Amino acid sequence: MSENLDFLGQLDPDDPRQASQQIANKLRAAILTRRLAPGDKLPSQPELAARYGVARETVKRALDLLRTERLIVSRQGSGAFVRAQTQRAVELRPHIEAAFARVHVSIDFAGFSGETLRDALAETLDKVRVGQLAPETIAVRVLISDMTVPMALPARAETQADDPAVRERAERITRRAADGIIDQVTELGDLGLIRSTTVEVRMHRAAPLFKLYILNGEEVFYGFYPAVERTVSIKGEPMAIYDLMGKDVPLFHYAVTDDDASHGTQFVEASRQWFDSVWSTIAYRYDT
């Protein structure tokens, strides 16, 4: 392991997060993108301390975070190892950033509005603007529900039925997120920072029940939208609705491996096929 740790990157002196958190984030991304595969031994504490220029106690705190998340296990006298099973709820943002380390970046999203994707992209694209990340091409496809047509969700709780006013609110949320993604990515092309940028948004008439992210065709993040009752303001009046809550939805990670029969490889392939099938059949253009 000591011969090449370049994939673990370096600490960012301008990052306000503690060094231990930065180290944990880099190791987590390496584990969940399979740069460190299940069963692999992590670099030793002295190796990590030397690489990042920190004390061993800082490295120990980073490893403690990963151990708490059940990503690694420690074996007395042998070191720390990636757990054999790493399918767990994960945070999207560091994986978006890792995806942008590639020369060609592709992101497919299917779900309600894309708010989480917009927010995760914002920080990563800031790093492109200052030259910390430099992909040559970015291609984004967004597949969302058309809130101008009747939907099972979101709905008015009192009647448990579609309500135009509830959908109007949902449409505003959807448009704000979709337009934000379009504007953020397109701007980089307009500024000449990226050689080629494409953003396509299509809509369909099915109610959103889950969210799906496909990064560079090799990683999938999948989560379910819970349907919850809550009170919101619609046209200045409180209204109880059955809503889709997506911002804190646990995402589960699957990645392509060298084994075509692995669970991760099969899930990624099935996700790509599902996305392409909807995109090319019942989906239609989003008008900005």
Task: Give keywords.
288 residues, alpha+beta
Round the mean pLDDT to the nearest integer and report it: 88
What's the order of the H and E elements?
HHHEEEHEHEEHEEEEEEHE
Question: Tell me about the biggest sheet?
Answer: 8 strands, mixed
Question: Order of strands across the biggest sheet?
Answer: 3-12-9-8-4-5-7-13
| Secondary structure tally, helices | 7
Number of strands: 13
Enumerate the spans where pLDDT stays under 50 for 5 or more consecutive residues.
Answer: none
- Which bin fits the share of residues in helices? 25-40%
Distance between the termini: 49 Å
Indicate the proportion of strand residues: 25-35%
Secondary-structure-based class equals: alpha+beta
Q: Note the overall shape.
A: globular
- What is Rg? 21 Å
Plain-language structure description:
The structure is a single chain. The protein is built from 7 helices and 13 strands. The protein has helices at 19-32, 45-52, 56-68, 93-99, 115-129, 164-190, 263-280, and strands at 72-75, 79-82, 89-90, 104-111, 137-145, 155-156, 196-204, 210-215, 219-224, 227-234, 237-244, 251-255, 284-285. The strands form 3 sheets. It has an 8-stranded mixed β-sheet with strand order 3-12-9-8-4-5-7-13, sandwiched between helices. It has a 3-stranded antiparallel β-sheet with strand order 6-11-10. Strands 1-2 form a two-stranded antiparallel sheet. Strand 8 (210-215) and strand 9 form a beta hairpin. Helix 1 packs across helix 3. It is globular, with a radius of gyration of 21 Å. The model has no long low-confidence stretch (mean pLDDT 88).
